[in-house]
Amino acid sequence: QVQVAESGGGLVQAGGSLRLSCAASGRTFSSYAIRWLRQAPGKEREFVAVSTGSGGNTYYADSVKGRFTITRDNAKNTVYLQMNSLKPEDSAVYYCNAQLRSSSYWGQGTQVTVSS
Q1: What CA–CA distances, in Å, run from 60 to 41, 45, 109?
Q2: 14-45 residue pLDDT tens
Q3: Is the N end or the C end of the chain the one with fewer CB atoms within 10 Å?
């Protein structure tokens, strides 16, 4: 069983930055693909970014490409999402998901609010 916990959300003005953290338990953390997704009120949950497992590749949604950066520190079992040049439309609850083959684990989410 893997436990996932997000942190780092908050209120920021447009153009500002935040760094979210996703901490996960488990000895095989480095093998997990870690995804960030977000869900705004009245909208479906959408993909933001992913750091793949052993391959270490990263992919981003077009809406955040060039502004957000996902990195991972396997020694700390943590993945970060650095969010720069934030826009009001980035406001959402951000969720972290850890996935390895058929196993998928979710955190409780962290709220990000960007004021205009």
Answers
A1: 21, 15, 19
A2: 999 999 999 998 878 889 999 999 999 999 99
A3: N
* Residue 32 tokens, joined: 């997990």
Would you mind telling me the total number of residues written for the chain in this entry? 116
Q: DSSP class of residue 76?
A: G
Spatial CA neighbour of 39 closest among 109, 115, 100, 114: 109
49 bridge partner residues: 36, 60
Identify the CA nearest to 25 among candidates 49, 42, 3.
3
Cβ count near 81 (within 10 Å)? 26
Angle value at C-alpha 47, between 65 and 19, nearest 5 degrees = 60
